[in-house]
Amino acid sequence: MTVTQHAPGGEATHLTDADVVVLGAGAAGLMCAIAAGARGRRVLVLDHANKVGKKILMSGGGRCNFTNTGTTPANFLSVNPHFCKSALARYTPADFIAMVERHGIAYHEKELGQLFCDESSKQIVRMLLDEAAAVGAQVRTHCAIDAVEPVGERHFRLRTSQGTLDCGALVVATGGLSIPSMGASGFGYQLARQFGHEVLATRAGLVPLTLSGRPLERLQDLAGLSLQVEAGCNGASFRNAMLVTHRGLSGPAILQISSYWQPGDDLRIDLLPGEDANAWLAARQRARGEAELRTVLGDVLPRRFAQRLCEAWLPSRPMKQYTPAQLREVAATLAAWPVVPSGTEGYRTAEVTLGGVDTAGLSSSTMMSRHVPGLHFIGEVVDVTGWLGGYNFQWAWASGHAAGQAV
């Protein structure tokens, strides 16, 4: 077996020294182990959890949205938007797809370049473990890290719940703060600070937005309704589904824009995406002058949502009664419906963590620290965050591969 598991409280087996120790057996950590092992390095992957790849297993509804064929650097948020370019260019979606196909894993494209397993995300975890085993990389679970200390030049000593070991290269792939129930912690940020790195402020990304007070009261009983919108904030916009929830708004369009939203910002939501709202209303006025606005809107929006829109935001009357100026006002609301979220659902449900280890302290080609030779940071712990739709996995594969080629 590639994975050696130790039950909590069980007798620890001595850890042997390694060329490379990877902290975190998630997507980035396993990919790094595979790349480093293929170069003949003795690799040991340590994870405090009871099993590997928990976020891989739960992603995509259990089918793992493992990459996006349209990945470009523009699909990522970072203080330095150029940092991700090198790694992404050297390990592409096609490279990962080739591995998936080599292992006979059936997959399909859902939408917008998003690739999912036909069967189960367990296949991706199994593939990564098999690849790691093939190059001799070892994976240990139930292994908590108590301390990491530098030992001379380019060496580290790790004190763990399973013993003490030394290594020549240390790769931090511990992830962010998202979904603490899956074992997420701030350990990687703690290590970064210990070794002199700046950690940029973190916040939940790809997360549902909450409403409160009157805005929530107006929409709460519509929970479960979904509609196609284009959500915009701070210069970014995403066209996809929006879902009304008991606590606010969710769905792909909202999750995407949440990464650009800051407390106090208002969202502008186009309820007729792809349409010129004023021209659309004028055409309906000519064709259906006797019909009320709420009826006309109910033909293209969920009827209960159209009804509520007219009760709370738009005066509903027969279409023929609107003056051109009034119709323009209705169009403006439909094209940029204002919503001011009170907050987010937080790390509990966030798919990613924004912010993290400042890329100014890292090499973009090797992911190695500019302060401490042999120390690398990869994956979500770094200040690089992708859009929804497989981009964060591609960053994990690419950054893990970049470090694995260098350790």
From TrEMBL:
<feature type="domain" description="RsdA/BaiN/AoA(So)-like insert">
    <location>
        <begin position="203"/>
        <end position="352"/>
    </location>
</feature>
<keyword id="KW-0472">Membrane</keyword>
<keyword id="KW-1133">Transmembrane helix</keyword>
<protein>
    <submittedName>
        <fullName>NAD(P)/FAD-dependent oxidoreductase</fullName>
        <ecNumber>1.14.13.-</ecNumber>
    </submittedName>
</protein>
<dbReference type="InterPro" id="IPR004792">
    <property type="entry name" value="BaiN-like"/>
</dbReference>
<feature type="domain" description="RsdA/BaiN/AoA(So)-like Rossmann fold-like">
    <location>
        <begin position="19"/>
        <end position="405"/>
    </location>
</feature>
<dbReference type="Pfam" id="PF03486">
    <property type="entry name" value="HI0933_like"/>
</dbReference>
<dbReference type="InterPro" id="IPR023166">
    <property type="entry name" value="BaiN-like_dom_sf"/>
</dbReference>
<keyword id="KW-0812">Transmembrane</keyword>
<feature type="transmembrane region" description="Helical">
    <location>
        <begin position="20"/>
        <end position="38"/>
    </location>
</feature>
<keyword id="KW-0274">FAD</keyword>
<dbReference type="Pfam" id="PF22780">
    <property type="entry name" value="HI0933_like_1st"/>
</dbReference>
<keyword id="KW-0560">Oxidoreductase</keyword>
<dbReference type="InterPro" id="IPR057661">
    <property type="entry name" value="RsdA/BaiN/AoA(So)_Rossmann"/>
</dbReference>
<dbReference type="InterPro" id="IPR055178">
    <property type="entry name" value="RsdA/BaiN/AoA(So)-like_dom"/>
</dbReference>
<dbReference type="GO" id="GO:0016491">
    <property type="term" value="F:oxidoreductase activity"/>
</dbReference>
<dbReference type="InterPro" id="IPR036188">
    <property type="entry name" value="FAD/NAD-bd_sf"/>
</dbReference>
<keyword id="KW-0285">Flavoprotein</keyword>
